[in-house]
Amino acid sequence: MAGVSTPELAAAVSNSGALGSISVGAATAPQAREMIYQTQALTTAPFNVNVFCHPPATRNPAKEQAWIKQFSDMFHSFGSAAPTALDEIYATFCHNSAMLQVLLDTRPAVVSFHFGLPEPEAIQALKTAGCLTLASATSPDEARLIAAAGVDFIIAQGFEAGGHRGAFLATEADARLSTSELLLLLQEATPLPVICAGGIMNGTDIARVMQQGAAGVQMGTAFILCPESAANTAYRGALSLAKPGETCMTSAISGRPARSLNNAFCKATRIILPENIPDYPVAYSLGKALAAAAQSAGEAGFGAQWAGTGAHRARKESAARLVEILAQEWQHSSATIETHH
């Protein structure tokens, strides 16, 4: 939840008995350290720190210039000039000694990896420091690699999930498995406990996957409307008005497939071919510039409004109250399932 997670949100969730999470994927090492310190100041309970393990971008100046040119008219329509060059705006956690040192110094209870795995030495160092480790998988092959790397938990990221697909095996096409389908396959593939992510919005959803053997659930979209999240007014407004079926997968915003509310940016880039898009996160530097230009011209639909397929079921509650409601719904639904068995 890079961009919307905050120390306040993570701490409120952890203080309510769930595991709060902050993403430092979009942060520099000093910024990450500050975010972790802020969270530790607000809670003594465990929380998760999420890092991005994407491969460094392969730069292609011609492709990047063509990408800028493709959007120059759009920038002008918003009264702004298009950028002259693009940047690799997020550093990967892989071979990132500064970010690893931040985690070893601050020792969060849990560290989770998205977009792949860091080098074995980094995983070993985190485990030695007492951190539990989690990693996202979208296929059984990815799960087997995660298990072989000595990670403690696998996150089954179903195709329903909002935000970026965590897929990291370039050799296989995305099978787009649903959360429930993926859970069953991952249970067969490895002995590790599996946490489900994707389309889980209420206690009934939680009970359903727990009944199927999930060790837990990870929820993102459900918490975006909480006052503690950093989502801006436009994002909150669009999410509040979302209707069923109104999310789509897009690579045009960032350079990697991600599930978003079907906003103006998604509609404007629907026919773009994936091979014309610069690598993540280089494409994202244009996406962010375009969103800012649009915003300044009063057009709010160009931001990265990530959301899962359950977007229309998002609730506007404080984080603490939402955790309480989810726990009550889950217990009620679990009892109902037991009765029917």
Automatic annotation (TrEMBL):
Catalytic activity: 3 propionate 3-nitronate + 3 O2 + H2O = 3 3-oxopropanoate + 2 nitrate + nitrite + H2O2 + 3 H(+)
Gene Ontology terms describing biological process: response to toxic substance
Cofactor(s) needed: FMN
Superkingdom field: Bacteria
One Pfam family recorded for the sequence: NMO
SUPFAM superfamilies: Inosine monophosphate dehydrogenase (IMPDH) (SSF51412)
Protein keywords: Detoxification, Flavoprotein, FMN, Monooxygenase, Nucleotide-binding, Oxidoreductase
Molecular function terms, GO-annotated: nitronate monooxygenase activity; nucleotide binding
Family: Belongs to the nitronate monooxygenase family. NMO class I subfamily.
Protein's recorded name: Nitronate monooxygenase
Phylogenetic classification of the source organism: Bacteria, Pseudomonadati, Pseudomonadota, Gammaproteobacteria, Enterobacterales
